[in-house]
Amino acid sequence: VPRFRLSYALTTQPAQFAAISYAQDLGARLNRLAELGYDGVELHVRDPRAEDVARLEAFLAASRLPVSAIGTGQAYGEDGLSFTDPLDEVRQAAVARCRSHIELAARLAPDAPLVIIGLMRGRVATGADAAAAEGWLLAALGELALFAADLGVRLCLEPINRYETNLLNTVAESLALLDRLAADNVGLLFDTFHANIEEPNPLASIDAAGPRLFHVHVADSNRRHPGAGHLDFPQVLAALTRIAYSGWLSAEILPQPDPETALTQTIDTLRPGLA
Ligand code: LER
Ligand code: MN
Description:
Blueprint: E1 5-11, E2 21-22, H1 26-36, E3 40-44, H2 53-63, E4 67-71, H3 74-77, H4 88-108, E5 114-117, H5 130-150, E6 154-157, H6 171-181, E7 186-191, H7 192-198, H8 202-209, E8 213-218, H9 233-242, E9 248-251, H10 259-274
Parallel strand pairs: 1-2, 1-3, 1-9, 3-4, 5-6, 6-7, 7-8, 8-9
The structure holds L-Erythrulose (LER) and manganese (II) ion (MN).
């Protein structure tokens, strides 16, 4: 039985998107994660160029937590940057922003840098052509995959539920896009919350992703900590074991009822499956 490493998603700046928590005192939150037995932290960064990276490095070093992945969704949520915006200059700004996320991942997680492509893919604008959006997305991902490969960085594309985007809701759609992209440093992120909404059979979708699965977000059916909803996490872990998944389980959850309870309940619920 492989031992899954557990990380927790935090945002480095306050944000509108609620399922990634913000800690006023990031250093203290990182130390608390380490104390509870977390193996790493996933950092969501709006704009790496506006970030005090030396400060992040100091907090990470003090907590001794490695970075599991760098999240990019705040660039969309806060700044409206996406790879499928109808405006060419916005698409270009999105690609430039994501290059800086790739550089940040290479700097903060030199052993296995991973960058998440989630909400930043954007959506098909009302009345617009889905094929055009897919073309823009493929062009952006192709360019970013080459840039990332030079820095040893991998990217993971995340199927996201229909209430947040209308572009790539399912694992099957995302795998089909990865087939067209044909870049071996780009894989899939499976988020248990989105999968519970969109996948006909979430466990079969894990099998279908197989070696192309690069990262996993864990959240219960209500997007709260594992154990707060009705998802069967032992079955999810068994499916991940079947495909010999060796990446992270990263909790991307609402900080409810409060951040401390969310942290402790996540690890208490998943711990039996981690060892
Ligand atoms: C968005 O719902 C999500 O799950 C994030 O991982 C996207 O950046
Ligand atoms: Mn997610």
